[in-house]
């Protein structure tokens, strides 16, 4: 693996060749202060009101994507993973049109990319907090690419753009990645680690000092995980919005969309033997066949 030289950038109006070169090398890039603190608070309020709406109306899935429910440190119901959040918030919908976000599409190189507001899981909001009843304290090693695995031998690149809504210095846990693994072989993408069940630190992993308002972009093929916070309650809180930037055929989701296999994969905490993966991918193969041929 390439020696990682950690650098932090700023995204003024558009991304630069320097950003692109750094990203191509490591598969991850961090931008400081992408949104200011006031906007962070505004987005937190938006997310809270979307959450309230979904809980009030007892909505468990959005466009086929299951929401993950849990409790905060006061015992209140919270949603620990929201999907398609911008479909419930005009402010978040408008934010996705920010030209600086659009400029990130350049990180896909020759691929024609777009912000997948209505595709994949849409705008995701993850909410990690350590409490007795929290379902979501950490996330095991994975790449974001398994969905594409059996659509053909070529995995389509995608970007996951994280907008961080809480401070999370390295010591608080948070995102850990193996830099450079975005350009690995298909075999390594499948089998470097056990998908989602392996939570062990890797001696080559790197983490970040994140401040609320920072932006991270990682390549979907990069191995990454979320390290649990050593704290409990409010101090362990970590909320991140994820925006998918994708390529390939346009595949919007709608209210009758089926639950895709990669959510079953995460839910089953599957050991990805080739036979199991092939078995699980069957419904997806049918669903995604047109995309693979396109
Ligand atoms: O919370 C994070 O920073 C990463 C989440 C993640 O990797 C995922 O939801 O696929
Ligand atoms: Fe991920």
Short descriptors:
7 helices; 3-stranded antiparallel beta sheet; 9-stranded mixed beta sheet; 26% helix; binds fe (ii) ion; 20% strand; alpha+beta; binds 2-oxoglutaric acid; Jelly Rolls; 294 residues; disordered C terminus
Task: Write out the distinct hetero groups bound to the structure.
Answer: 2-oxoglutaric acid, fe (ii) ion
The averaged pLDDT comes out at 88
- How many distinct helices? 7
- The ordered H/E elements are EHEHEEEEHHEEEEEHEEEHH
Distance between the termini: 33 Å
Major sheet: size, sense and barrel closure? 9 strands, mixed
Radius of gyration: 18 Å
Query: Class, according to the CATH hierarchy?
Result: Mainly Beta
Secondary structural class:
alpha+beta
Overall strand count: 14
The tally of domains stands at 1
- Overall spatial form: globular
Under CATH, the topology can be stated as: Jelly Rolls
CATH homologous superfamily annotation: q2cbj1_9rhob like domain
Note the beta-strand portion. Answer: 15-25%
Percent range for helical residues?
A: 25-40%
CATH second-level architecture: Sandwich
The poorly predicted ranges are 279-294
Protein model, in words:
With 294 residues, the protein is of the alpha+beta class. It has one domain (14-293): q2cbj1_9rhob like domain (Jelly Rolls). 26% of the residues lie in helices and 20% in strands. Strands 1, 2, 5, 6, 7, 8, 10, 12 and 14 form a nine-stranded mixed β-sheet that branches. Strands 9-13-11 form a three-stranded antiparallel β-sheet, with no helix packed on it. The radius of gyration is 18 Å and the shape is globular. Bound molecules: 2-oxoglutaric acid (AKG) and fe (ii) ion (FE2). The site of 2-oxoglutaric acid has 8 residues, from β13.
């Amino acid at each position: 693996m390439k020696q990682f030289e950690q650098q932090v950038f700023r995204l003024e109006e558009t991304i630069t060749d320097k950003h692109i070169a750094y990203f191509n090398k490591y598969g991850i890039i961090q931008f400081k202060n992408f949104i200011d603190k006031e906007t962070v608070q505004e987005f937190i309020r938006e997310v809270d009101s979307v959450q309230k709406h979904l809980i009030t109306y007892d909505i468990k899935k959005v466009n086929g994507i299951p929401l993950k429910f849990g409790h905060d440190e006061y015992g209140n119901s919270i949603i620990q993973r929201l999907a398609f959040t911008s479909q419930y918030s005009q402010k978040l919908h408008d934010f996705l049109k920010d030209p600086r976000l659009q400029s990130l599409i350049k990180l896909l190189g020759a691929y024609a990319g777009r912000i997948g507001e209505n595709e994949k899981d849409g705008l995701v909001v993850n909410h990690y907090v350590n409490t007795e009843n929290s379902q979501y304290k950490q996330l095991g090693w994975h790449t974001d690419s398994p969905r594409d695995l059996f659509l053909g031998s070529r995995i389509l690149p995608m970007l996951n753009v994280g907008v961080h809504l809480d401070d999370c210095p390295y010591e608080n846990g948070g995102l850990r990645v193996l830099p450079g693994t975005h350009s690995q072989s298909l075999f390594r993408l499948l089998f470097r680690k056990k998908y989602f069940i392996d939570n062990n630190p890797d001696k080559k992993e790197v983490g970040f000092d994140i401040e609320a308002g920072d932006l991270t972009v990682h390549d979907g093929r990069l191995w990454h995980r979320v390290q649990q916070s050593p704290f409990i309650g409010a101090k362990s809180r970590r909320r991140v919005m994820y925006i998918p930037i994708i390529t390939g055929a346009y595949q919007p989701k709608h209210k009758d969309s089926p639950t895709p296999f990669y959510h079953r994969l995460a839910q089953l905490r599957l050991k990805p033997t080739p036979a199991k993966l092939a078995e699980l991918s069957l419904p997806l193969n049918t669903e995604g066949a047109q995309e693979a041929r396109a």
